[in-house]
Design brief:
By secondary structure, the protein is an alpha+beta fold. Helix 9 packs antiparallel against helix 10, helix 12 runs parallel beside helix 15 and helix 14 crosses helix 15. The termini are far apart. The strands form three sheets. Strands 1-2-3-5-4 form a five-stranded antiparallel β-sheet. The chain has a three-stranded antiparallel β-sheet with strand order 6-7-8.
Length: about 425
């Protein structure tokens, strides 16, 4: 510190000042101690209406039991109120913090805790009929030690001033249109103002879906289109966050289920060839599973969704989804999983019953031609049944055909393990 700075400090000259709607915020030496003060703008200090409103606001603030409410005292002289002395502590405005430490918004829970604290304090203000009306970063204070937010004077105390736009000069974008027009504020005015602060907090990064959807509604020009209260807005953020978490869990479950099915198929034993005696009495190997039916349709990475939903999933922007689109996606995923479970259970019961007769000891001892004919008949009946289930469940036929083929193959493989060695039977023996 040079000589001039030492003299200024001894004389109590303000250091590190910043402009706020009320005046200059700075640290000042008072009674040999540095304290945070706001030197009021001359035009405000000269206004009897403002000074009287300030006295009422100080008294109302003192009656609010909340750690996020900043207490202050008024300094007056013969000319009236000229300065606010803030409660003891080391503070800076949120604007200063964002300017000096822009990466602070990326810290875990910083934004969430700030929004929660301001929302809870605002609800207490509303219970007393007080509205803050402006959450501009220059009007929100934060404690330097832990970044805890604090609010000072509340806008509804100064609605008696004729020119509200002049009062909030430099912070107009954070104030609801009806307030700037001099209309009577209500809870929706604070919904708008707090949502504007949220926009600033996410200005340097992508705003998550749960905040984006809520902020869009909260900053509507017409008050009746906003949330009815700050509490309702804050709850909406939590609900949308839970919806996103549920959707991601459902999608993860589908991926895991798909991997398990592929793993099961990969580990399933290959079909064992059985010796048959053809109609000419020749013994040869034949594959009883070589049955003439349509090949299943190959699916891409969205194979556990119907094609329409999969195409829609590829085309959407998760960040830009509306509430209706999000609900459609969530319901579609849950419905798809449930219907496929129903289809698999019902079809597996029918297939097990039909194939058990086909692989009975008596049928396995028949000729190749007879066995293949019976196999084709059984499979045709099962595929027809799969088509009926497709209509009952509403699942696409391509998907049900693929699942039916998969289930038939699994059951056949299992039953082949239980087939004992059969002797060959000639045509003459058959007759």
């Amino acid at each position: 510190m040079n000589y001039e700075e030492m003299l200024n400090a001894q004389e109590g000259v303000a250091q590190h000042s910043e402009q706020t709607p009320l005046g200059i915020f700075c640290r000042k030496q008072i009674d040999r101690k540095y304290k945070s003060v706001i030197a009021l703008k001359p035009e405000l200090a000269d206004s009897l209406v403002f000074c009287e409103a300030l006295r009422r606001d100080r008294q109302a603030s003192a009656d609010i039991s909340d750690a996020h409410q900043m207490r202050y005292e008024l300094h007056e002289d013969s000319g009236g109120v000229y300065e606010l002395e803030l409660q003891s502590g080391h503070y800076q405005t949120l604007a200063q913090l964002l300017s000096n430490e822009p990466a602070v918004v990326a810290e875990k829970n910083f934004i969430g805790q700030m929004v929660k604290a301001l929302a809870e304090l605002t609800e207490k203000l509303h219970e007393k009929g007080i509205f803050h009306l402006c959450y501009a970063p220059r009007t929100v204070f934060v404690r330097k030690s832990d970044h805890m937010p604090l609010l000072l004077c509340h806008g509804s105390s100064f609605m008696g001033l004729k020119d509200q736009a002049a009062f909030y000069e430099g912070c107009e974008e954070f104030v609801a249109p009806e307030v700037l027009a001099g209309e009577t504020p209500d809870e929706r005015s604070d919904v708008y103002a707090l949502a504007k602060l949220i926009e600033v907090l996410f200005a340097s990064g992508d705003m998550p879906y749960e905040y984006k959807a809520v902020v869009k509604k909260a900053t509507a020009e017409e008050p009746e289109k906003r949330y009815p209260s700050v509490n309702a807005m804050y709850k909406a953020i939590g609900e949308k966050r839970s919806m996103m978490r549920s959707l991601f869990m459902a999608l993860a479950a589908l991926v895991v289920a798909g991997l398990l099915v592929l793993f099961y198929i990969d580990l399933s034993p290959e079909a064992t060839n059985v010796e048959f005696v053809d109609d000419n009495g020749l013994v040869r190997k034949a594959d009883p599973f070589t049955i003439d039916y349509e090949e299943p349709v190959d699916y891409d990475e969205n194979e556990y969704m119907d094609p329409e939903t999969a195409a829609w999933m590829d085309s959407i922007d998760m960040q830009a989804m509306t509430d209706e689109e999000f609900k459609m996606l969530s319901d579609s995923v849950r419905s798809q999983v449930k219907l496929e479970e129903i289809f698999r259970r019902r079809f597996e019961q029918r297939a097990t019953s039909k194939l058990a007769g086909l692989y009975s000891n008596s049928n396995m001892g028949s000729s190749e031609s007879s066995f293949i004919a019976n196999s084709k008949k059984v499979v045709d009946e099962l595929m027809e049944y799969a088509g009926q289930l497709s209509e009952d469940t509403g699942l696409p036929k391509e998907r049900t055909s693929s699942m039916a083929t998969e289930i038939i193959s699994q059951i056949q493989s299992q039953m082949m393990k239980n087939v004992t060695r059969y002797g060959s039977m000639t045509k003459s023996e058959e007759e």
